[in-house]
Amino acid sequence: MKMILNKWVPLRVLVSAVSVLCVMASLEGQELPHSCARPDQIAIAHLHLDLKVDFESQKLAGSATMKLDRRTAASNLYLDTNGLKIFKVQSQPDGKELKWNLGEHEPNLGSSLSIELVDGVDEVTVYYESQPGAEAVQWLTPEQTTDKKYPFLFTQSQAILARTWVPCQDTPAVRMTYSAKIQVPPELLAVMSASNPQRKNKTGVYEFEMKQPIPAYLLALAVGDLKFLELGPRSGVYAEPSVLKKAVWELADTEKMISAAEALYGEYRWDRYDVIFLPSSFPFGGMENPRLTFATPTILAGDRSLVALIAHELAHSWSGNLVTNATWDDFWLNEGFTVYFEQRIMEAIYGREYSEMLAKLSLDGLLAEIKELEARDTWLKLDLRGRNPDDGMTSIAYDKGYFFLRMLEEKVGREKFDQFLKSYFKKFAFKSMTTEGFLSYLQENLDKNIDFNAWVYSPGLPADVPVVKTEALERVEQAGQNFLNGDDLSVLAVDFETDQWTTHHWNHFLRSFKNDLSPAQMKSLDDEFKFTQSGNSEITHDWMVLVIGSGYQAGFPRLEEFLTEQGRRKFLQPLYEKMATTPEGLERANRIYAKARPGYHAVSRQTIDKILNYKPTEN
Question: Which CATH superfamily is domain 41-225 in?
Fold first, then answer.
């Protein structure tokens, strides 16, 4: 295998600099991975949505009007759809009906919508409605929300789920501006990844505009009983009423983060940076929808210890939203850059020791996940052909990508590397980028002698991975070892000043127990530190891993409660995987999942279905 890789890699390295602006598939006139679109022929330049939100039928119904960039003489427009019901297609402005065809459904990809265009037509309208099972859209009853008063809706379009609620060219290689008119029940507020209202109106009709071009996976809509409060002159928070003040307090440093980010890599190009806290079923920590980050309430720890997530989503305003991975095989260009940027923001605001704790936790998680993945899936340049792009959302893209960029910084010096990144974001703003395009730009503008093959086109971590040293977490490890050696916990708490520990200290403490603890040891820890009663989701998750491994009976009621009260995949996946390793645990996992599954988003359901071999059609 090594010989084959060594022969193959240089061919990728020699891809010409033209790949900076074009994805590999479109250069060859072929269809893109994970998309039916052919944007090298005809691309969407602007999208306008006119939709009614119907909570009773759980459908989005209306139209999508597309202004087209006809780049060749091709007569067919190809769009991605998945589960949409298409009624008719018209040319604009004359309103004449056009011939269209919906292709066969393919797993993950959905169906290609082919529209025959006549000469001179550069604007079309597709009349359609989404279906109740649309994977991007979660419809929540009042009982499933935080305040339990009104229904709620939110979308999650990444990676290729935009096509389940909008006919579009669902590939990050295509960028478009968009506008929208959304009709909702008058007691609710609608917000999007665009210019947003800050209060409800009496009509329930809201209009939106996104002037900067974005890929389809950044299309986003949320509808609910939302209130808004400002954080600063260009930032604020949306949330259900009972969550709002807590969220505003937690995100008090957001304006500082924006300023720190701009000082590093240039102007914030999206006008406003607002955050919406969604109900607990949201499957991710955050989603970087431009102008409006979607966030999980699980980061509201009450001590601002989990706001690195906001720094991460803010950083996406440059890496991902401004310069976007051209295909999902290039996902590290979004996430590795963003983790690096996040760390720099956190260092600028909270200091190097704090950011190094985050880096240490990232490295530990990366090393653990590398052991679980197939070797090919530990390359930075992924190969997701025939697979769901979600398979690439591992710590490889995030943390191996981060350590690659950190290695570059340490090799050439921070000042030079910062200048390079600032020029990179400026030169390729609002464009898509391939791995090969970035590496070409890297060699031309930073260092011609950088050997990146071991990082980008090889498995695992190379020998030159940066060293992370944090005295704070070394002391945490010592505390854990002292406990295993039999030290009294009350004495340990005083000696190591555990009352001053942050979430990150506790994460490292709990994760330092590599082997399962005994029930007696678990009880001792729980009696002293009240882990089972913790309201901090990060600490609760790590404690529940130990609860499962040790068979600590007192923790199992809280485990079931934790798995049913929130749907964040980061927490769900490891716990279900841990339970599934024993017959008794598998029985418990299936029992809990049967209860919790209806409240999970499709993204989380798909992951847990695989772990438990759950077959929805059989139930």
Answer: tricorn interacting facor f3 domain (2.60.40.1730)
